[in-house]
Amino acid sequence: MLAYIIQRVGQSALVLLIVGLVAFSMFRFVGDPIDNMLGQERTAEDIDRLRAQLGLDQPFVVQYYKFLEGAVQGNFGVSYRQGRPVAEILLERAPATLELAMVSGVLAILFGIALGVFTAIRRDGVLANVIMSASLLGVSLPTFLIGILLIYLFSVELGWLPSFGRGETVDLGGWSTGFLTESGLKALILPSITLGLYQMTLIMRLVRSEMLEVLRQDYIRFARARGLRDRAVNFRHALKNTMVPVITVIGLQLGAIIAFAIITETVFQWPGVGLLFINAIQFVDIPVMAAYLMLISVMFVGINLLVDILYFFIDPRLRADRSGGH
Amino acid sequence: MADPVLSIRDLSVEIPTRHGIVRPVDGVSYDIAVGEILGVVGESGAGKSMAGNAVIGLLNPPAHISKGEIWLNGKRIDHLTGDAMRRLRGKEIGMVFQDPLTSLNPLLRIGDQLTETMLTHLPISRSEAEKRAVAALEEVGIPGAAERVNSYPHEFSGGMRQRVVIALALCAEPSLIIADEPTTALDVSVQAQIIALLRRLCRDRGTAVMLITHDMGVIAEATDRVAVMYAGRLAELGPVRDVLTHPQHPYTHGLMASTPLASQGKSRLHQIPGAMPRLDAVPDGCAFNPRCPHATDKCRQSPVPRVSNGQAACWYPLVEEKVI
Amino acid sequence: MSDVPIPVKPKSRLRIALDSDLYYTFRRSPVAMVSAAVVLLLVLSAVFAPLIAPTNPFNPASLNLMNGFTAPMTPNAFTGESFLLGTDDQGRDVFSTILYGMRISLFVGVAAVFFAMVLGITLGLISGYVGGWTETIIMRTADVQLTFPSILVAMLIFGIAKGVTPVEYRDQMAIWVLILAIGLSDWVQFARVVRGATLVEKNKEYVQAARLIGRTSGAIMLRHILPNVLSPVLVIATISLALAIIAEATLSFLGVGAPPTQPSLGTLIRIGQGFLFSGEWWILLFPAVTLLALALSVNLLGDWLRDALNPRLR
Question: Model's pTM, two decimal places?
Fold first, then answer.
């Protein structure tokens, strides 16, 4: 089992290095690296110092290493557009995205699993079919469209909920939270539904299809042949076996939420890192793009790794593979 | 004489398909007495498993019972659905499937799978069920049962797993076991052990067994009576010794002649020409007539007489032709 | 019984197609038929847009600013002209902009999927057939790329490409960059499926026979293996198309896709959002509904195709 973990960690490290390479290449070759690091207000000494520091005449690998070194220490350069250190900007805006992602994720998982199980068990029922048809909409409708429609309905027509921004936030030692104010909570509603809906639909369809697949298996048939109650068959047997492959996907989906937040944040002008990234692309603000890329990668790779290790603990068959069957 | 444990009367199962109605079970009748092992033999697709599925109420829709009756211990059960049928499964009727690897839930310990079955049907406490689970494993010959009860299915070999499956099928003390090709997925060396185990357990408890197989060797070894199925219909039914040594139906005769054991001494294996018809293209009259060397016009046109014990479903049953 | 076989007339290919299980399932599924009809309708209107559209909204000469903000089917206060679906802020006929916008959406979608397919199939065939280091490198790259959502990859590629393009050319190149970005973000699933199928086919007798008689690897891959791996590819391609259309719409909506000078449905929606609160709902609604119809139909068709071709579900 240790060997497995080490292998996975090694793989993850490799991925991060590759991504780092891409980010570094962007930094170095797209636009001027001096501009990227120093912004527009700089002196001649600054330029010389940075030249030496970056070692722009040194071999590629050395530069790459220095770049990574800086990144690990939190130095991502200076935003071309805002003239401030990128790290500072990211830290400032991270709580907004994280809170949004958290709420959406919880919604997506709870409803996704519940509806998935329901539509698998009551497969031929009317309600199940209605839900499945509605879910097709959830998958086909682009997220931004859902957001816009929600805005139209709840902001423009009904006027119940705000259509942009976070509302009032409270600063808890560096983390600005929207959970503690009424306007903050209201502002969370539409964006989190928008962000979570797609994930929820995906999870629901996945749980349903996995469960249907499981319900087809011989051991379910055998369980029924032994006269076990439906509840026992569906939940003790089928659900357990369904969750194993599903958990990994759910974990990966949660990572995706942070990336999809880009779209939701744009629709609702939510001041998170996603909106920051899109603006960076529009203005070709390389340092911000590179920094976002690296942070997101760390997050994705980290989640993938965690999920893989978790999988190992859930499925007893994987454990036994190492010790050999009897 | 006591009621037979299982009585199937003129049972038909139909499946509507795109090409028409398919009848994997067509007017089949047989009984199984207390403690008796009835072998149901036939080629793949002959409908033998379907009959078993119908009895235990696990037909996959759109397959359904279209005609006939099923009686268990003197009570009619073919019309039962839902919870009423569920209570019979495991408690009155047990089933053993072909592939022990896929029959067991890989994520649950086998002890848990045993106790849950018992707790569903028997009015005993959890600790009592756990004790019985260990005992059940011992009975089917699993060494070190007290520790193995906490193992997962993949930690057992194929033969051991099938023993576990048998333990599971028997743990709620049913009066009938339907064993659907219980040895087909096992190594040859293990097959005999499993059959012997099944026989011993059922004799000891007086459990009736419907042993479904395509293997004539198993039939010869383990059964008291045998039912030969062809294209969904019953071709012959009778005590195993009689049917195997003096087959009356030309099909049974052909089967026996093509079994390597039976042809000892002959230079070539006998072959029945042609193949069993697809269930959506069963010939008129006797289903076997295109391949039968003795077929006449009567065989091709008139529906064949139904089997009764000791009499094959044939207009011209063979007499006195000893095969082995 | 006679032993002489009665000669049977061979079925024409059309007959074979009509008799096939696939067509049978198609006829029995109202959903599939309706979706196919909708897709066909939309595609045809996009293809024949220059003939159907009442105006060419991107010819500045034909625009009259005074026509701006006209509601659907009501005569304009100044010019008295009437437009089926209204006009936008620049006086462009919304119906026409939708038709032309759909052209862009469909063009980018189809081109991107085509690109992804060719790239993916090629890499899949090569890695499956050749194996060794080539396979490892290709598949590892695929794995790395798959760690990230494809839309993110597409955004990144678009951003980088934008960074290296001189400012004057950015609008013109946008469509092509978009195709490249979406295509590059999507090749992996094709490659994986084709590689898997290639590995299976590789060991079959007909391939070994071909090798024995001296056919080159390339010929074997193209003529023998490729036809056998097409079925799952077809399903993936249909679903990919729906995803590509949505991806393009999303990117354009976010402002990192089709520019306002060559707007796709996504761009139109972006523009329309700006007028939501001021009451000109039609500038948003009609492009949105069109996009919805297109994405939904292609999705449904893809879903149906996947179920119909899945041997296990039969």
Answer: 0.72
